[in-house]
Specification:
single chain; 799 residues; alpha+beta; nine-stranded antiparallel sheet; nine-stranded parallel sheet; 13 helices; globular; binds alpha-D-glucopyranose
C-alpha cells in the first residue's frame, strides 16, 4: 500500500489532445484527454472569455469585477472543424483551437494574427494550499508594446517589465516599486497597428511578464483560482479600453463640486484651524470646493466618532463651512479599535462581522488606533451594516463625502504589511482565505461605503475616495495614487500613473499634489499644480509633518501661479464635466496618453509626458527644476498654443517655452471648448453666459458640451442639456452647427463664441440662415460673437 503523505511534485502540467467538443449557444467547450476543459464564451463580436478547468471541474462562476450593465451580443457566429483544429468565427475575429495542444490563435478576418499562445495554458499543482498555480504564455509579436495595469509606477510602455498585483500600503514608494495599492490585471497590447486587451479576472496575487524573462514571450499567472480571462479586440486602442470599461463598469456622474479643487492635510484640526483655512481661501480668492479631515478628527482613531475637544460641534462647523461653499470630506479606515466600550466594535462583535483566522480566533492587526479587528467586507451582510454606519454622519451631521484609506488592508509592524494569509472571508458565499480575498478587500469596503453614502446623501450624488482597488472599483469610487513624495521624480510618476489608471478603466484619479511625504519647494509645488489641475481628481494632500502645503505656503509668486491654474480648472469645469459624462456613458478615458490618441504614429508608443485632457487639449507638464520650457512631442494634427494662439503643426518633437507661470498647453484645431467664469466654488455664481472658445480649422471637427443640474439625479429623467457642435471651416467662412438634446434649461440664454485663429476678417454673420447686424452679435468687436443658446447654425463669412 502507498501511504502518500508527501505528494509527488509534478512541475508544470499541460493540456494534451482534444477528445470532445460541445457548443451551448455562445459557449464552446473543448475537453482534452487529460481532462482539461477550455470554455470560450463569445460575449460580443470582438470580446471573448476564456476559462480553463483542470480535472474537468470549473469553479462557481463569480466575479466582483464584472458590471451588471456589461453589454452582450454578437451579430454572427460560426464554427468549423478541420483535421487539426477547430475554428470559431465572429464578424470580427477568427479563433483557432489546436486539436493536439489546445493552443489558441486569434486573428482578424483577413488572417492577421492578433494574439497567439506560446505554450498557452499550463499549470502547477499547489501542494501547500491545494488548487493550482495557473499560467498562460503568449507569443510577443514583433514591435509589440504593452499598456495599462493600474497604478504601476513605471514607464507607460510595459515592454520588458514584470509586474504583480497585490494591494500594498507603500509609504513613500519609489519609481519601479511594485506592487502598489491597486490590483488591475488588465493590459492592452499593440502591434502592427492592432490593439487588443486581456483582463485576467483572478483576485489571487497575479503576475504579468511582458517579454521580460523571454524576449518573445508574454505570460501571466496566479497563485490560485482559475485561468479566466477576457480578450478584447480593437483594432483601435480606444475600442479595447472602452470594451474593458464597459465590462467592469463606469461610475455614475459625481456632483460637479467633486471636480473642483480640494485641499487636504494630515490633519487639519481643531475647528478654529479648519475655519481659518476656509477663510483664507476666500480671502485670497483661490477657488476651492472641499476640505478634508484626516484621522485626527476621530476620538482615538475610532471610526464614526469625533474628538469633541477638537471638534465640539461638527454639525455646526460643517454647516458654517457649507455656507461659504466648502464641502467636508472625512476619512474612514477599515480597522476597528478593539475596545469593549466602543459601539462599532460591540456591534460587529455581537453580529460576528469581524474576520477570523484559519482556526477560529479573530484576526488582529495594528493600525492607527492600536490593535484592531477588521470587518469582513466580502460578506454582503457586513457591507449592509457598514453602509448604515454612515447614517448619522451624512444625514444628521452633514458630512458630504468619505475617504476610505488603509484598505489594502494595511497592517502595521508586520513584514507582510497586511492580514495573514489564513484570514477567512465570506467572498459573497464562496468562503476562502485572504489569498483570494486580499485584492478585493478594499474594493468591497469602498463599495459598502458608496452604498451607504449614496443612500444617506440622497437626493444628492455620492462622492467617495479609496486607496486600494481591484478592477471594477471605478463603479463605486474615485481614487488617488497614495503616499508619494515631494520630488521631481514623483511629479513624473504622478503623470504616468494617472495616465495608466485612465487606461485601466479608472479615470477618476489624481495624485497628492505637491507630494505627501517631505516638502516641495515653491517651484515644484507650482509645477505640480500645473499638472494636477488637468487630472480628473484634483487635491493637495500632505503628511503635514514637513511643513505646510497650502497654495499660499510658498512665496507670493507661487500663490499667484497656483491661483491662475486653479482658476483655469474652474473655467474648464464644463469641459471637464463633459469629459466625465463621456467616461461615465461610453467608457472614454478622461486623460489619454498619446498612444491612445494616435496609435498609428509609432512616435507615440514610448512617450510618457504628453497627454490629451479630454478630447482636444494637449498637456505636457514641466518636470524639471529651473526650466524655461521643454522639448515635447506634438502629436499629428494642427494645434493652437493655448497661451498665444500660435499654430503648430504636429508630428514632431519641439521646444516649447514655458516659464514658471506657464505650462505647455495646446488646443486641437477645430475644437470648441466650453468655459465658465471663475467661481470660488461650484455653484457660487449663476452662469449668465456660456463661453465657447472656438478654434478655427480648415475642415470639420466635432465637439460636445454636456450639462445638467451639477448634482442630483434629474439628468436620468432627461433633464440634461447636450450640445453637439460641428465646426466646418473654409478659406472664407466658418460654420458651426448645433445639435441639441435633453430638456435641461440652462441658467444662461446666450453663448459667447470667442473665435481663435480666424484667417479672415468678419464680413457678415448669419444665424439660422438670417443675416444679423454685426453690432448685435459683436458687442466687443474683435472676434467675439454672442448668439442665442438655441441656434442651429452660425455662419461667419469673411472679407
Ligand atoms: C495614509 C494615507 C494618507 C493619510 C494617512 C493618515 O498614509 O495614504 O493619505 O494622510 O494614512 O490617515
Amino acid at each position: 500500500m502507498i501511504t502518500n503523505t508527501e505528494l509527488e511534485y509534478k512541475g508544470n502540467l499541460y493540456p494534451n489532445h482534444i477528445i470532445d467538443f460541445k457548443q451551448d449557444v455562445d459557449k464552446f467547450y473543448f475537453t482534452t484527454e487529460n481532462e482539461v476543459v477550455l470554455q470560450i464564451t463569445v460575449l460580443r463580436n470582438s470580446a471573448l472569455r476564456f476559462r480553463y478547468a483542470t480535472e474537468n471541474v470549473f469553479e462557481p462562476d463569480f466575479s466582483y469585477a464584472i458590471s451588471e450593465d456589461a453589454s452582450r451580443g454578437y451579430s454572427s457566429l460560426e464554427v468549423d472543424e478541420t483535421a487539426t483544429e477547430y475554428l470559431i468565427r465572429t464578424s470580427k475575429l477568427k479563433v483557432l483551437i489546436d486539436k493536439k495542444s489546445l493552443r489558441v490563435q486569434i486573428s482578424d478576418l483577413e488572417g492577421s494574427i492578433i494574439n497567439e499562445d506560446e505554450i498557452g495554458f499550463h499549470w502547477e499543482e499547489n501542494y501547500e494550499y491545494g488548487g493550482n498555480i495557473v499560467k498562460m504564455s503568449k507569443i510577443t509579436q514583433n514591435g509589440e508594446s504593452f499598456f495599462g495595469m493600474g497604478d504601476k509606477a513605471t514607464h507607460s510602455n510595459l515592454k520588458g517589465k514584470q509586474v504583480s498585483n497585490w494591494c500594498m500600503d507603500q509609504y513613500a514608494y519609489v519609481k519601479d516599486l511594485d506592487p502598489l495599492y491597486k490590483a488591475v490585471p488588465f493590459f492592452t497590447g499593440l502591434h502592427n497597428n492592432m490593439a487588443y486587451g486581456i483582463f485576467f479576472d483572478n483576485t489571487f496575487r497575479t503576475y504579468f511578464d511582458f517579454a521580460h524573462e523571454k524576449r518573445h514571450v508574454t505570460s501571466f499567472w496566479a497563485d490560485g483560482g482559475e485561468m479566466n480571462f477576457y480578450f478584447f479586440y480593437g483594432p483601435e486602442m480606444s475600442k479595447v479600453i472602452k470594451a474593458y470599461t464597459n465590462l467592469t463598469g463606469t461610475p455614475e456622474l459625481p456632483p460637479m463640486w467633486a471636480m473642483g479643487y480640494h485641499q487636504s492635510k494630515w490633519s487639519y484640526f481643531p475647528e478654529s484651524n479648519v475655519k481659518a483655512l476656509a477663510r483664507k481661501f476666500r480671502r485670497l480668492k483661490i477657488p476651492c470646493d472641499a476640505l478634508y479631515l484626516d484621522i485626527d478628527y476621530m476620538d482615538g482613531f475610532r471610526c464614526f466618532t469625533w474628538d469633541k475637544k477638537k471638534f465640539p460641534d461638527p454639525k455646526r462647523m460643517m454647516a458654517e463651512l457649507n455656507e461659504v461653499g466648502f464641502k467636508t470630506v472625512v476619512m474612514i479606515d477599515p480597522g476597528i479599535k478593539i475596545d469593549k466600550d466602543y459601539w462599532v466594535y460591540q456591534e460587529a462583535m455581537e453580529k460576528g462581522y469581524f474576520c477570523k483566522r484559519g482556526d477560529g480566533p479573530y484576526m488582529k492587526g495594528k493600525v492607527w488606533p492600536g490593535e484592531c479587528h477588521f470587518p469582513d467586507f466580502t460578506n454582503p451582510e457586513v457591507r449592509e451594516w457598514w453602509a448604515e454606519l454612515y447614517k448619522e454622519f451624512m444625514s444628521e451631521l452633514g458630512v458630504h463625502a468619505v475617504w476610505n484609506d488603509m484598505n489594502e488592508p494595511a497592517v502595521m509592524e508586520v513584514p507582510t504589511k497586511t492580514a495573514p494569509l489564513d484570514t477567512r472571508h465570506n467572498f459573497d458565499g464562496h468562503p476562502c482565505t485572504h489569498r483570494k480575498a486580499h485584492n478585493v478587500y478594499g474594493m468591497q469596503m469602498v463599495r459598502a461605503t458608496y452604498e451607504g453614502i449614496k443612500k444617506h446623501v440622497y437626493p444628492k450624488r455620492p462622492f467617495v475616495i479609496t486607496r486600494a482597488a481591484y478592477a471594477g472599483t471605478q463603479r463605486y469610487s474615485s481614487t488617488w495614487t497614495g503616499d508619494n513624495v515631494a520630488t521631481w521624480e514623483h511629479l513624473w510618476l504622478a503623470n504616468v500613473q494617472v495616465q495608466r489608471m485612465c487606461m485601466s478603466g479608472m479615470s477618476f484619479v489624481g495624485s497628492d499634489i505637491g507630494g505627501f511625504a517631505e516638502q516641495p519647494n515653491g517651484e515644484l509645488f507650482a509645477r505640480w499644480i500645473q499638472l494636477g489641475v488637468f487630472h480628473p481628481f484634483c487635491r493637495v494632500h500632505s503628511s503635514g509633518d514637513h511643513g505646510d502645503q497650502e497654495p499660499w505656503s510658498f512665496d507670493s509668486d507661487v500663490t499667484d501661479i497656483v491661483r491662475k491654474f486653479i482658476e483655469l480648472r474652474y473655467q474648464l469645469l464644463p469641459y471637464l464635466y463633459t469629459m466625465f459624462w463621456k467616461y461615465s456613458k461610453y467608457g472614454d478615458p478622461m486623460v489619454k496618453p498619446l498612444v491612445y490618441f494616435d496609435q498609428e504614429d509609432p512616435q507615440t508608443h514610448f512617450r510618457t509626458d504628453e497627454f490629451i485632457f479630454g478630447d482636444h487639449i494637449l498637456v505636457c507638464p514641466v518636470q524639471e527644476p529651473n526650466a524655461q520650457g521643454r522639448r515635447m512631442y506634438i502629436p499629428r494634427g494642427n494645434w493652437y498654443n493655448y497661451w498665444d494662439d500660435s499654430l503648430v503643426v504636429g508630428g514632431k518633437e519641439q521646444w516649447v517655452d514655458a516659464d514658471i507661470d506657464i505650462t505647455p498647453l495646446f488646443v486641437l484645431e477645430g475644437a470648441i471648448i466650453p468655459k465658465f467664469p471663475v467661481q470660488q466654488y461650484v455653484g457660487e455664481l449663476v452662469i449668465k453666459q456660456l463661453d465657447l472658445d472656438v478654434y478655427y480649422k480648415l475642415g470639420i471637427e466635432n465637439s460636445t458640451v454636456y450639462e445638467d443640474d451639477q448634482d442630483g439625479y434629474d439628468y436620468n429623467k432627461g433633464n440634461y442639456s447636450l450640445r453637439n457642435f460641428k465646426l466646418n471651416g473654409k478659406a472664407q467662412s466658418l460654420a458651426i452647427q448645433q445639435f441639441k438634446d435633453g430638456a435641461f434649461l440652462t441658467s444662461y440664454n446666450s453663448l459667447r463664441l470667442n473665435l481663435h485663429g480666424l484667417p479672415f476678417t468678419i464680413k457678415s454673420v448669419e444665424v439660422d440662415n438670417e443675416v444679423v447686424p454685426l453690432k448685435q452679435v459683436k458687442p466687443n468687436g474683435n472676434n467675439v460673437i454672442v448668439v442665442s443658446k438655441d441656434f442651429t447654425q452660425v455662419l461667419i463669412k469673411g472679407k
